[in-house]
Amino acid sequence: MSKRDYYEVLGVSRDANEADLKKAYRRLAMKHHPDRNQNNTEAESKFKEAKEAYDVLSDAQKRAAYDQFGHAGVDPSAAAGAGGFRGGDPFSDIFGDVFGDIFGGGRRGGGSRVRRGSDLRYNLELSLEEAVAGTSVNIRVPTLVTCEACDGSGAKKGTSPTTCATCGGVGQVRMQQGFFSVQQTCPNCRGQGTTISDPCPECHGQGRTQKHKTLSVKVPAGVDNGDRIRLAGEGEAGEQGGPHGDLYVQIQVKPHPLFRREENDLMCEMPISIGTAALGGELEVPTLNGRLKLKIPAETQSGKVFRLRGKGVRSVRGGATGDLLCRVHVETPVNLDSRQKELLREFDDSIAQAGQHHSPQSASWMGRVKSFFDDLTS
Fold this sequence. Notes:
single chain, HSP40/DNAj peptide-binding domain, 15 strands
């Protein structure tokens, strides 16, 4: 008797994807499963046929060979093996292959559960100068390390963990409820697969102990707020001798008394006197690399920004160095004596007599104000 086409068996098209195949197989497996069709040889035959078709079409290499050569392109012995039951539990075979994602990811191997250690985070506060130039810092980190007394096994020296008698070392137990079977974590060993009858007195059977360790962190030049430095393997020790997690050092840059960083540029606010703003002059400007002279042209207005090229920050990710942006603010003098006040009044009167010649912004402002009120009254 010749075999039916595998796509016809599952009732799918030849371009069906993996999800379509699984859905079709699930439907047929549930319908024709022997547990639901006692003493029904036809149902068992259809179940095996669907199983064989799914095993071939769900395997990319076998499917390619089948598409090209038909049944002759698939190893007959492999197909026959796929059509039968593996072991003594056909139900677990179906749900392990098709419905494993529903019931916890399918079957697992035996032995103790080795788990990777947790990652740690350390907040490192730096000055702006340290962040821009780079530095090396020693940090002290609390963490869980492998217990030296038991070498991470959790058992007292000279003893060792034993295989869990409840789950046989699998870490999972199966509960059968009618047609459905559900796996859950073994309550005796809590998923470890082993039990400890004589725990280590140092770690109390945990295999790890609390300890502070000092690490040297090399901070590259140009780091900024929120940047992270990963120290591989410096996190917590894993359970049952598992690998260490990682340590992430998160950068926090302290506020600076003079500068504010915006990406790769540095911002600086500078007050200047009325005289300097009107007549021009020269100011000494601070930078992270020393002092510079900045020429202030005559008639400089408050809020004017001067750009010093290349005096900013070079990002840790590379690229061009940013600039230093100096914004000037004309400062109103305070605590004047009588002579200073008299001179300012004379100066102000002379400016007022000249009108907009000396104060173009004030004249423009007053013009807009007059236009505004004229519109209101018209």
